[in-house]
Amino acid sequence: MSGYDALASSYDALMADGAYRRRADFLERLFRKSRIPVRSVLDLACGTGTIACLLAERGYRVIAADGSEEMLTQAAAKAAGLESPPLFLHQAMPRLRLLQPVDAAVSTLDSLNYLTRTRDLRETFRRVCRWLRPGGQFIFDVNTPYKLRRMDGQMYMDETEESFCVWRTFFSGRTKVCTYQVDLFRLQGDSAWERNFEEHRERAWEAEELRQYLKEAGFGEITITGDLSLRPPAEDEDRWIVRCVREQDHL
Which residues share a beta bridge with 64? Predict the structure, then answer.
């Protein structure tokens, strides 16, 4: 099984350290630097919708897209009590299509690393640029090559009251892809455990590649900083924040 099918129902509990509110605060800080007022936001690869819901709670009109139906089911349930919930779309990143442009686009927690083919990353950048208003920001984060290379041969464990997850990671220097083999055990009843296996892949994208493909897609003012920071990244940075602006004359 690939993607987040089995993991969807346990994702939020396992990712409790994602610092979602801090990320939403940081995104708002960057929105205030936008050339244009930010009222509508695209959350690309929204997962279970935590960031999308936080932004909706703060008054933004949010469109949230993801390629996993299971993740979107969790997201819709989470948004059910909101006065103005996000509009959820079942769309893979390279197939993004909206009904109208947005003022800003975001993608968090290394979603773009999951695009392991160059053509898919370039097409995603083109599509995001197409649906951004001129002057609008695209803000995303990626796991750095430093982090993904360092994960080769590692094993990680996450545990909650009702689930236990084991991650084994392998990095290929030839393909620049880090493979995560995930065993998820979920408690069924009082003593029985259900096992699911998933395999995930993340591509290590170099800063120069990201800059080149963003520029080709029609973005300018490209900056790369450390995680949740406006400062240049350290050499041993685990996560980069990438910010860019759709150029005015891009068609």
Answer: 43, 88
